[in-house]
Amino acid sequence: MSQNHLLIVHSDPSVRALMTSMLQTMGHRIDEAPNDRAAVRMLEQGKADLVLAGADPGDPEALEFLIYLRRKHPRTPVILLFETPHPERAREAALRGAAAVLKFPLPATQLRAAVAQVLGVPDPAGGGAAPPAPRPSRAVG
Fold it and tell me: pTM of this prediction?
């Protein structure tokens, strides 16, 4: 299995550590960034196959990082993680190109399944190769 590069972006180090532990069993290379600015610097140094980014849906600038990624790295899929459900903001994120918007925290199996689907790799929970994520993406609130 080829190793994909995941970039986890979240301001809370315990959340980044939890997500890394949830995803490391998939065999991907995982890097962590504490904020959008650090993530941009990391992406300037090398490509990521998937970005998982925490966002506060109540923040008026919550989707700015997604917008930047769509402009500068249009082929890199992005999964946004909202700690509070916000269906309207989730729909907006999907329209702006998010591969998925998930309510976090969520069970590890659901996070791994979403990552597998977006990357089009076998789902570690069992089912064969996951189909590529649909475009436009779905929003989960």
Answer: 0.86
